[in-house]
Amino acid sequence: MGHFETGCRVIGSSRSLPVRPRNYLLQVCGEALPPALQMGTSRPAEKGLSNLQTPYLTLSPRQNPQLVTSFLRTVGSGLRSEVEADPLSLSPCPQYSHFPVRCSTMPGGRWVPTVKWLGCWPVVTHRPGSQRTSHMQSFLFLQLWMGSHPRGDAKILDNRISQKTLGQWISENQDCLGSKVKDTFNGKLPFLFKVLSVETALSIQAHPDKELAEKLHLQAPQHYPDANHKPEMAIALTSFQGLCGFRPIEEIVMFLTKVPELRFLIGDNAAAQLKGSMSSDSQAAASALQSCFSHLMRSEKNVVVEQLSLLVKRISQQAAAGNNMEDICGELLLQLHQQYPGDIGCFAIYFLNLLTLKPGEAMFLEANVPHAYLKGDCVECMACSDNTVRAGLTPKFIDVPTLCEMLSYIPSKDRLFLPTRSQEDPYLSVYDPPVPDFTVMKMEVPGSNTEYKVLAVDSASILLVVQGRVTASSPTAQKPIPLQRGGVLFIGANESVSLKLTVPEDLLMFRACCLL
């Protein structure tokens, strides 16, 4: 697919800039980790890291070369206070309206570096002088954050602007949000836009509703950093595998029959109750499902390790003998156990729906729906929150009692979320979930077109270019802005943007906004 050029521009109007008050462009300028910070990866991506002379650093791709990444600064768990990367020397931007900023991209796992826009390669860092372990190297997933959440707010580096972050800029330029968005969400950007690249499974998790989020934030702000809910939607960029919502009861009962190690952990009484609920009403089925899942997740660690070892040995032996073990998700079970040995989350595959999304397909995760992302690349949009309740497949803080209590125990097979085609724009598909915080638009423009008009909406929006090359122009921009793979525009409310295709290549873009 070729590499992914990175960058970010911001379009809109401003009352507070010291120059050109009705025109601004905030440009992302890369910033590399200093040579002192050792980088680790299970793939040969370290060559050249000891002699960084440029903010642009190409890493080896996971499978297909896709993106060019630029390391910015270290943030997050384990590195926030211990290591802080100094920015590289950046030459002054020639236009007064161009300003370098830092933006956050965070791999999950124990050690967290920041990487520039769309660096969808798995990387792992460790503290200088610390021992790197294969367990640490196994955490291979990356999150690109596009928004103004305090944990991933874009940093404005140019000292000619008084505001230092995008969030600060928005707070002093409220009109860019749109009148309805500004009033409804108290002057805050209500959504967080991400790109995820997953090679190692992300945790078994769910996100709280607003009432529970407020309670958790008061009780444990170190684990639940804000008081907002976090409904979210994932749209596949590649083949994307995930777990989402509870399977139909009959499927779980079938696994309890075929996987005796699972039944041992749950117990005969809870298993019998679940089987009996198949002929009961939905409330009885939900109660039986909660009992079964809670028994599993609260199992003693040593018992889990023992039973999981027995299951892994049985599947491995059967597979070596040429037997197909897909009826009990054998390949996936072995994969998860290799990534998270002895983890209770490995058994969750027998309770949760396994989905494989094709590019463009989506799943929507409302509050209290259990899920896990297993493998692939996606764009993700959510309410502006970082609240996650975890219970497995993670080295992070887990909260099993809260998760088991909060979950929505409603079995459902169909978890695909379908977009609707726009009546006004034949190239536009709209993913409009049943929450007010965000909507995502997908634009697929044939390369035979020479120009494309981005519809003005009464909301601030973030536009991501996934494929193609264009120049963007706007009434508030002094000159056209070149964009290619990885280019990002923050567009103020009611701003119209015209894109001119500069090469005869199909254009693929995603846009996050808030349509009230």
UniProtKB/TrEMBL annotation:
Its EC number is 5.3.1.8. Residues 143-248 form the Phosphomannose isomerase type I catalytic domain. One of its GO terms (molecular function) is mannose-6-phosphate isomerase activity. Keywords: Isomerase, Metal-binding, Zinc. Binds 1 zinc ion per subunit. GO terms for cellular component: cytosol. One of its GO terms (biological process) is GDP-D-mannose biosynthetic process from fructose-6-phosphate. Gene3D superfamilies: Jelly Rolls (2.60.120.10), Phosphomannose Isomerase, domain 2 (1.10.441.10). Residues 265-352 form the Phosphomannose isomerase type I helical insertion domain. InterPro entries: Man6P_Isoase-1, Mannose-6-P_Isomerase, Pmannose_isomerase-type1_CS, PMI_typeI_C, PMI_typeI_cat, PMI_typeI_hel, RmlC-like_jellyroll, RmlC_Cupin_sf. It comes from the Eukaryota. It catalyses: D-mannose 6-phosphate = D-fructose 6-phosphate. Isomerase that catalyzes the interconversion of fructose-6-P and mannose-6-P and has a critical role in the supply of D-mannose derivatives required for many eukaryotic glycosylation reactions. Belongs to the mannose-6-phosphate isomerase type 1 family. This is Mannose-6-phosphate isomerase.
